[in-house]
Amino acid sequence: MEMPRPNSMILSHRAQIVAQLRAALPEGCVIDDPMETRVYECDALSAYRCAPLAVVLPRSTQEVAAALRICHRLGVPVVPRGSGTSLAGGAMPSADCVVLGVARMNAVLHTDYENRYIHVQAGRTNLSVSGAVEAQGFFYAPDPSSQLACAIAGNIAMNSGGAHCLKYGVTTNNLLGVTMVMMDGTITTLGGPWGDGFGLDLLGVVCGSEGQLGVVTEAWLRILPKPEGARPVLVAFGSSEVAGACVADIIRAGILPVAIEFMDRPCIRATEAFANAGYPDCEALLIIEVEGSPAEIDEQLARIRAIAARHDPILFTEAADEAQAKRIWLGRKSAFGAMGQLGDYMCLDGTIPVSQLSYVLRRIGELSVEYGLDVGNVFHAGDGNMHPLILYNANKDGDLAKCEALGAEILKLCVQVGGCLSGEHGIGLEKRDLMPVQFTPADLEAQMRVKDVFDPHWLLNPAKVFPLAASAARRGQAA
Amino acid sequence: MISPRSEAELAEAVASATGPLLPKGGGTRMIGDVAGEVLDISGLSGVNLYEPAALTLVVQAGTPLAQINSLLAGERQRLGFEPPDFRALLGRDGVSTIGGIAAANASGPRRVQSGAARDAMLGIRCVDGQGVAISSGGRVMKNVTGYDLVKLMAGSFGTLAVLSEVSLKVQSIPEAEVTLVLDGLDDRAGLIALRRALGSPYDVSGAARAGGRSYIRLEGMAGSVAYRAGRLRALFDATLAEGAQSAAIWADIRDVSPLHGRAGDIWRLSVLPSDAAEIVATLLADSGGDGQRDVVYDWGGGLVWLTLPAGLDGNLRKALQGRGAAIKLRGAGAAPFARQSDQVSALSSALKAQFDPFGRFAQGVF
Fold first, then answer.
1. Is there a smaller number of Cβ atoms within 10 Å at the N or the C end of chain A?
2. What global pTM score does this model have?
3. Where a domain ends, among B125, B148, B172?
4. Do residues B235 and B275 share a domain?
5. What is the CATH number of the domain that holds B219?
6. Tell me, what CATH number does A144's domain have?
7. Residue A453 is nearest to which of B337, B341, B350, comparing CB atoms?
8. What backbone phi and psi angles, to 5 degrees, belong to A42?
9. Domain edge (last residue) among A293, A312, A336
10. For testing the chain A interface, which of B31, B72, B78, B140 should be mutated: the one with the most A CBs within 10 Å?
11. Residue B88 CA, distance from chain mean position
12. pLDDT, tens digit, for every residue of A105-137?
């Protein structure tokens, strides 16, 4: 993956930059020891690594502003970082950048159950937001699979989704407002605890802007009352096509499960060997979860059972109790880990129209043979967000390049059938150069003009999202 | 008047314009003094794609809402965000179009459960102030590819670009609907009841108050609706309105029918639900208004529709005390945008300058 050549002027002024940051921030907030900055050399896209110039870990919005003002004045690029769980390289540093981590800002500032929101510092982890309101019977809906570790700041940057967004939506649908620091150190509030501000939806465009428009330090999040209960079923099929048709029929019937997850044979096998969740050896399986009181769950599952029966399932298992429910989810939740046991893998994230499921799975199978790399599929079938996992060997010469080429082919296929390059992981570094597959130069220009407004010198996370060639002139403006 | 028949003609019309333009769908929900040569979008009409099993609809921006509603109803589907019809409220005639709905982010009572128009919008195509066609988003349910210009355009009232196509997520019409009707409560108690219902696990799809009554809507499978109605009736003293009777209540709330024909300015307030009763009481004391006839609360109290005599703008700002936002839909000085902080205002103006550098679309609005 090509990165812009580090700015030698910045590299040569390293000592002065660090000294200025140290002078402005409290003790222990600036890291420049190369042994320690290495910790920040990559995110969850670990194939690419580069230690930053320095790392700052502020403890307040004011300290974030102070750090950004210095970097702005000195023309130093800044890469914002939540918990570093990005699968797209969104938090990957460059050698001439300062990594600005918000992980120390993790406090709950206010909870308001009557108006159903929580106000948190953005370094707080996703799961601990739900944890803070759980005792009162509430939860925060977006649930990316890294939710134990990932920060709200990163969720907002990538507009993260999760398994349950079929019913509850993704981050943007559950975000009420943010406090954000812009590259020049200006602190601004977008949205707030009430609904409409009656202005341009700047919050909507900041959400999903991959840390390129500002550093979000606080957020107001919608919390929802927890349903009375939930129950998953496991349905196994003899072919992926049939499983896909079953998904379409369920949605067409007007049933809205909270999740419909899909796994194919390579994934099922790997998962069974790793987690032993008790999945049958079959071509495709669905995990469908519904919510409500026991009677409401029965009502929904009876209909789902009737629809599934028309597709001759090999197996239809309802979770009889909490333990069985956990086992059904166990396999799905350990799928990535299980594939990791088989070797290195790259996780893709394209979305397709659900009507194209069968065709796309068949084409992925053909491409897998063509490239000689195994591909397992595990994904959110209800909304067409696919996660093909391409297995490769990082120690074998040329394997990573081959894997990247296959990944690009699969993502192009997603766009070709009416879908997109990324459903929930973001573009980051990984898919930056594929953007012209989905967008015209005019589309990209419109997006880059938005960045021009928020960050005129292109210092915030600059070499991401847009193809390097497309953003070159703008990045050249950096002092 | 310019009447393009295609996105290419629309782009050409904007590119070759020499003065201000006024993009117009059906003209049913424009707010305030708008000027310019009318750019009539009604010629961009028609369904480009409808996949009921994928809950996806892609339509040209000038397509009438009525046509979309009847197409969806044929497959037992609907627009989940329940777009309001403002014709009677604002004294307009004309045909509401999907482009106008998107540009106004026009959303009805179901917003508390299913989200606003902006949340149902999967993608857009539009033409910016230089006549360049731009696309953002797409037609799939989950999409984080590039910046979300869809949200930026939703509710921008045609100030940045003219919409030419909108992709929408639709939803199935549930088999049952009931409304709990709570009578005999004052505003304060009636709104507390709505907040309790919204904080319950019973998946409320409407929570509104008008004419001295509070309304709580439940939708879904028949058994589930009956169960949840029973649970909520254990909390509240309520009668039930079912089927068409329930639908009529929500059509009135959606279209703000209780305020139709009332004199004065029409305001729309966005506040914390728990502040709504007090803010409204202060304003009614100032105006001498009738709480049962001049106010509609929706979204559990987070949205307030209010008629006030002309000239009370200062009183309204004072009552709000920065605890929310307000716009005037009808009356002197009506405008679609509220006053923003200096930073937000500067960012909005700078975005406007990027998308519409020659000022073809409405000026001086941020």
1. C
2. 0.97
3. B172
4. no
5. 3.30.70.2860
6. 3.30.465.10
7. B350
8. -155, 170
9. A336
10. B140
11. 15
12. 999 999 999 999 999 999 999 999 999 999 999
